Amino acid sequence: MCWRAFGYNDYAAYVDAANSTGGEPASSPVVSRHLNVQKALNENDVLRLTWAPGRICYLRYLGNLRFRVEQSVNTRLQSGDTFLCGIIVEGEPLYLSDLQQPGRVPTNYVCGKLGGIRFELL
């Protein structure tokens, strides 16, 4: 096979390109500010999350990795919604699982896709 036709000098160059992630490692340890929910939070702790553009959300920790939305501004999350989350990493998107909203099927949801989230324990 002529790898040059596909822009590669040889098979090894093709494999290197296929395994590349744009010069960044495929995986890396979390070194930024973060919360391991199970270790860092107690029941009834409240977090304030913010993300662009102008989104604010207050969460109450219910235990067992479950949160309840207490108040939100400019987000699709509404007061009373609940979800599961095990780790919160500042500057990264927040991934919610088992998002429970009245009248809707449970789903997964991502907050802060662009620029990540910021958090504060109140």
What does the model show?
This protein has 122 residues and is mainly beta. The protein is 11% helix and 40% strand. It has two helices and nine strands. Strands 8-7-5-4-3-2-9 form a seven-stranded antiparallel beta sheet, with no helix packed on it. Strands 1-6 form a two-stranded antiparallel sheet. The N and C termini lie far apart (61 Å). The mean pLDDT is 84.
Strand order of the largest sheet: 8-7-5-4-3-2-9
Structural class: mainly beta
Helix content: 10-25%
What's the N-to-C terminus distance? Answer: 61 Å
Figure out the total of helices: 2
Average pLDDT rating: 84
Order of SSEs: HEHEEEEEEEE
The fraction of residues assigned to DSSP E strands is 35-45%
User: Total number of β-strand segments?
Assistant: 9
Main β-sheet, in a few words?
Answer: 7 strands, antiparallel
Short description:
The protein has helices at 11-19, 37-40, and strands spanning 34-36, 46-51, 55-63, 66-73, 82-84, 87-89, 94-100, 107-111, 117-121. With 122 residues, it is mainly β.
Give the topology, please:
Elements: H1 11-19, E1 34-36, H2 37-40, E2 46-51, E3 55-63, E4 66-73, E5 82-84, E6 87-89, E7 94-100, E8 107-111, E9 117-121
Features:
122 residues; mainly beta; 7-stranded antiparallel beta sheet; two-stranded antiparallel ribbon; 2 helices; 9 strands; 11% helix
